[in-house]
Amino acid sequence: MLQPRVGYQNLKDSYLFFGINQKIEAYRNHHPGAHLYRMGIGDVSLPLCDAVIRALHQAVDDQASRDHFHGYMPECGAPFLREAIARFYQDRDLPVTADEVFVSSGASDELGDLLDLFDVSSTALIMEPAYPAYVDANIMAGRKMVYLTAGPENDFLPLPDDRLQADLIYLCSPNNPTGAVCTCGHLQAWVDWANDRGAVILFDAAYEAFVSEDLPRSIFEIPGAESCAIEICSLSKTAGFTGTRLGYTVMPRKLVRQGMNLREMWIRNRTTKTNGVSYILQRGGAAVFTEEGQRQIYENIRVYKENARVLMRALDQAGIRYWGGKNAPYIWMKCPDGMGSWECFDLLLNEIQVVGTPGAGFGACGEGYFRLSTFGDPADTREAAGRLLKLWGKTT
Amino acid sequence: MLQPRVGYQNLKDSYLFFGINQKIEAYRNHHPGAHLYRMGIGDVSLPLCDAVIRALHQAVDDQASRDHFHGYMPECGAPFLREAIARFYQDRDLPVTADEVFVSSGASDELGDLLDLFDVSSTALIMEPAYPAYVDANIMAGRKMVYLTAGPENDFLPLPDDRLQADLIYLCSPNNPTGAVCTCGHLQAWVDWANDRGAVILFDAAYEAFVSEDLPRSIFEIPGAESCAIEICSLSKTAGFTGTRLGYTVMPRKLVRQGMNLREMWIRNRTTKTNGVSYILQRGGAAVFTEEGQRQIYENIRVYKENARVLMRALDQAGIRYWGGKNAPYIWMKCPDGMGSWECFDLLLNEIQVVGTPGAGFGACGEGYFRLSTFGDPADTREAAGRLLKLWGKTT
Where are the domains of chain B? Predict the structure, then answer.
């Protein structure tokens, strides 16, 4: 008799965003036609930029032509895209080479797939509140987990200590959901800790493009990271690819554990378990790394940063405490009046039709917090900010 | 210290197609500008059909428009595509419903990802010669494997017997590499065997569109399959999506093992470990299932079937024994003169510049055989057939 993986039985009942969607659907059934102000799931609202659209159309035309048609792509990524991404690092004086870059279908997919490299006996460290997929993917695999709690006491940026024992460290900066951004000092502490113990850091850099102050955007800015870190990146938030799908991963040659070179294992994994990423999408992705593409994506990012300012101003005026928003597309707010996260969710949905994400969905220590995304439509965001202020403001 | 998966250390040195590509590269370095007749790796040569191209362009335009932009897609597939695929089954009187259809990035990716559902203690059964990724993905995972040998004695279609013990059955029909196609009787024997023992069949139907005689194209044509089989399909060969990427999987509601519903587990897996497949590609995929799309893809399939006829005629004239080619895009040929597979590869590459695939790359029992793909350019295929006949023909 086939034995399914029992880890699945240890999962909690439903995935966070699935639960939110069910509540929204129920609300809509009772209020047909109601407009919702969606500051919840981190989906973008602005279309792809011109440079990407042109590249996608051109690639579709290639697929229509006998002379320019592309069949199977190299499993680890098309050279034109791997090289463009390597240059993107090299332009910041980070010595990443094209063969250390792996093209993926997105950070979410990649974070799940990468677990294939590690024995199930390895312990994963999650800093909560955390993106729920980190936890669930490891529960499914049957992996042991340890948790570090992030909170106001450490500015939502926990540091390692000598008692901590873990092999696989999830580190997300700028952080989802708290918006906290690691300093070089923070990252150096984790890199040193990982190198001392032979641990590996999975550095989720999906929001690096939102760093505007002088803070690290890549873990490879930190000396020693090339022997302990894998950086997982995405064009989802950087360039609006949430529904178009494309990401990339940097796995340095120097990353070796128990005599096994993880980059070589990953090449073997990709060549065995995939047939590469769509030629069309890779052409679209390459356009992001052109001068024109960079200029255009930052025009969109500026819109989202303006959304953040609008929401932060409303929370400031209402006297509500929050973190993030400056170098991250998320605002992590303390629910006012001692409310619970889901209580706050229901209140905002039912009273002002604003949809956010309950902090408790990111781990128990997220209870009493609430995440607002800044990826919404600008007009909706202004209206939502006004409604928040009207609901909670000391003056209306 | 982090422990990488030791299974990777048990892999053989290099993946088949990687090895072939290295030999080709070496040949090209010595013979710059030489034209090669590529009947090797199963890549297609004809561009995407008009209906698909139009749908892809339209979807790219959607991604450029604020009103029609698509962000995150449902993880298990867009309803429009899941429904189109379900109708494709229903039109053949197979009661597949849209929520049993899962959109994937392709059969290769999916066959790797699906292993996530099964405990590592489950034993996998591989019928060799086999697509090498089946074997390697299970070695990486550290899973025990048993092998059944296919050969001329069973027309390359082995049947189960009572002594056999396995939990996970890989079944590929039309077969890669042998081109053998299971009859209903064959499939029924495997379905009954799997249901009796609580095994699960992974039915790789990537080549179903090439069945032109009265043979099963889906395992769900067989009574009882809905409680023991997962069908993995691809648009790669059906519609030329090798470099565009899209596939789908049918996982029936009735598939339950040890009290765990595999379809529900798979929904949980996809919602946790992916963010869905590109909107653009799903629109392109949906066009395949329109009346116009079906007509156009079969025009391309007819070209490949004509390639098969040209190659089979040459082998017939040369008196070389082969299997497949009729209801499958592969011809599985016995190497003449007692040659080994790689010996045959080197001979054809060096003497007549024809690239095929050594049978030994599909398992030890493939030694002495050679695979010809019919996906090549028609003019190249005619020339290759002529060269094969000149090399081996009794009359020139």
Answer: 11-48+293-392, 50-290
Beta bridge partners of A17: none
A50-290: what fold?
A: Aspartate Aminotransferase; domain 2 (3.40.640)
Pick from B83, B79, B69, B262: nearest CA to A377: B69
Selected for mutation to probe chain B from A18, A39, A138, A275 (highest B CB count within 10 Å) is A275
Q: Does A260 touch chain B (CB under 8 A)?
A: yes
CATH for B11-48+293-392?
Answer: 3.90.1150.10
| pTM of the predicted model over 0.90 | yes
CATH of domain A11-48+293-391: 3.90.1150.10
Helices (H), chain A: 16-30, 50-63, 79-90, 107-113, 132-141, 184-197, 236-239, 262-273, 279-288, 291-318, 341-347, 378-392
Q: How many CB atoms lie within 10 A of CB A299?
A: 10
Tens of pLDDT, residue by residue over A267-289, are: 999 999 999 999 999 999 999 99
* C-beta atoms of B273 and A109 within 8 A: yes
Q: Is A247 helix (H, G, I), strand (E, B) or coil?
A: strand
Q: What is the pLDDT of residues A36-56, one digit of tens each?
A: 999 987 789 999 999 999 999
Q: A148-161: string of b/e by CB count within 10 Å (b at 16+)?
A: bebeeeeebbbebe
How many residue pairs bridge chain A and chain B with CB atoms within 8 Å of each other? Answer: 260
Burial of B35 (0-12, 13-18, 19+ CB in 10 A): exposed
Q: Is the ipTM of this complex over 0.85?
A: yes
Helix (H, G, I), strand (E, B) or coil at A323: strand
